[in-house]
Design a protein that fits this description.
The chain is of the alpha/beta class and 338 residues long. The chain has one domain: UDP-N-acetylmuramoyl-L-alanine:D-glutamate ligase (3-Layer(aba) Sandwich), CATH 3.40.1190. It is 35% helix and 25% strand. It starts with 12 loop residues before the first helix and ends in a 6-residue tail after the last helix.
């Protein structure tokens, strides 16, 4: 199949984790700063029927494409992040946080006309979300910023093993940007992976693999997904609409469904305890990309991503998985994934 390095191997999955180090993943998309304001709720406001939150602490984490890059770095890969931020305090905080996590920030293009996307969540000390405030501009980037993004991306792809598009509908993933990424990845014969959004599905033509969740797959195909047979049919319809080579449908507690060419592969869920699914898709596509960069067959890369997702949903907020955590999960699994 196009862009995939096909190798016949009987190697255990953990051996591919060992190969993550030294691989380069280029991530292009929408970054954001996830701001958590933690506090204790002890009473209801006399002014309105809302809880009064007594402030305890702030916590900041990279979100969106920045969380994909963080996941790649945490698993031992080398992320190259290309995105757009504003000229503001949130951008400075995000850049500093990424740098501390070994994510280079040279590819963050500043746009003075828009704010850095920031999501402020008010959360209780029991990790219950009370409210969310979004600071963002969802309009598409202008031509000059778009040209800068493409210039950074083309340079980075020259040394890439895999390219990831992380689309959060915040203006970076324009048709022109995607077309340039498809052309550059094809020229270098490296896989192009897309974490999609429904309203942009016609932009992803030529991608190697697209990774919709089951809600996105249902919305695009107008098909219900309640079992494996329906997942298989929806995956084919989704691939035909998007015009990608392969499709990986993430199905939450039902696992994943991989359509590789004309071959179907069902991957049962491996989560032991679900705390928070925020950012799980970022972990999935980061691990999938690293698996392919490590020359794993697509089905094995998807299995690695499935195990990584099972770990990260047990954590609060956008989180990452370490190589040791992934190896332990693989060792504790049964069957062919052990």
């Amino acid at each position: 199949m196009r862009h995939l390095r096909r190798r016949v191997t009987a190697a255990p999955l953990a051996s591919f984790v060992d190969r993550f180090a030294g691989t380069t993943v280029v991530i292009v998309g929408d970054v954001m700063l996830d701001h958590f304001l933690f506090g204790r709720v002890e009473r209801i406001s006399p002014e309105a029927p809302v809880p009064v939150v007594r402030f305890a602490r702030d916590e900041f984490r990279p979100g969106g494409a920045a969380n994909v890059a963080h996941n790649v770095a945490a698993l031992g890969g080398r992320p190259v992040l290309i995105a757009v931020v504003g000229e503001d305090e949130a951008a400075a905080r995000l850049a500093a946080d990424l740098s501390s996590k070994q994510v280079a920030v040279d590819g963050l293009v500043e746009d003075s006309a828009r704010p850095t996307t920031r999501k402020l969540r008010v959360v209780t000390t029991r990790n219950q979300q009370v409210a969310r405030v979004d600071y963002e501009d969802e309009s598409e980037i202008d031509a000059a910023i778009e040209a800068a993004v493409i210039r950074h991306a083309r340079t980075a792809i020259e040394g890439a093993d895999v390219v990831v598009v992380s689309d959060y509908l915040k203006g970076v993933v324009t048709q022109t940007v995607v077309s340039a990424l498809v052309e550059a990845s094809r020229r270098r014969a490296v896989p192009l992976l897309v974490d999609p959004k429904v309203s942009h599905v016609d932009r992803y033509a030529g991608a190697t693999i697209v990774t919709p969740n089951h809600h996105e797959a249902e919305a695009v195909t107008l098909m219900r997904i309640r079992n494996g047979q329906e997942a298989a049919a929806a995956a084919r319809a989704f691939r035909d609409r998007v015009r990608s080579d392969h499709v990986l449908v993430t199905r939450g507690e039902h696992g994943m469904w991989l359509l590789e060419g004309d071959r179907d592969c069902e991957l049962p869920a491996v989560a032991r305890e679900v705390s928070d699914v925020t950012g799980a898709g970022d972990t999935v596509i980061a691990t999938l990309a690293l698996g392919l960069a490590a020359a794993a067959p697509l089905a094995d890369a998807a299995r690695l991503a499935n195990h990584a997702a099972g770990i990260v949903v047990g954590k609060f907020g956008p989180a990452t998985v370490s190589p040791d955590e992934l190896r332990r999960a693989l060792r504790s699994a049964t069957g062919t994934d052990s």
